[in-house]
Predict the structure of Polyketide cyclase/dehydrase.
Amino acid sequence: MQFRASEVVTGPIDLVFAGLSDMAHYERDALARGVQVERLDNLPRPAPGMQWRVPFRAKGRDRVAEFALVKLAAPTGMRFEGRVQGLFFESDFDCRVLDPDATEVTITTKLRAKSISAKVILQSMKLARASLAKQYRKRVRKSLRELEDRIHAPTMGEPDAS
């Protein structure tokens, strides 16, 4: 099963990609929302090999998502791979210059089931594909609008104060 969303972000590709690959921002944002995020590596800056573990509760059960940055090709793309029990995913982030101040960002997420229970979940998701695809596009749009606001804020590109 696959979801895809594309949006145009106002800003040069280098600045857009820098914002997309600012992992420290996403970690702080998740922690601020009460999500436990455990970094499993010691890499000082975004690079393949960065790994995270995120415990959460879904459908009355405790679960753990584990994912890693497996490809980083600045400023055009990156890939994450991960799993939640028997459900595996790949998320590709691709950037393309439209003009010097406009970048198209396409995010594609592919899901694969490896266990029986994950296959049942994935089958249920396929039945709700249209509404899930709409939610996915809405969330990508919202995230990229927030990214656009961040890259146009006066402090983008300056070292983090924390």
Q: What stands out?
A: The longest helix spans residues 129-152. The chain is about 35% helix and 40% strand. The helical segments are 13-20, 23-32, 116-127, 129-152. The beta strands are 2-10, 38-39, 51-58, 61-73, 77-84, 87-99, 102-113.
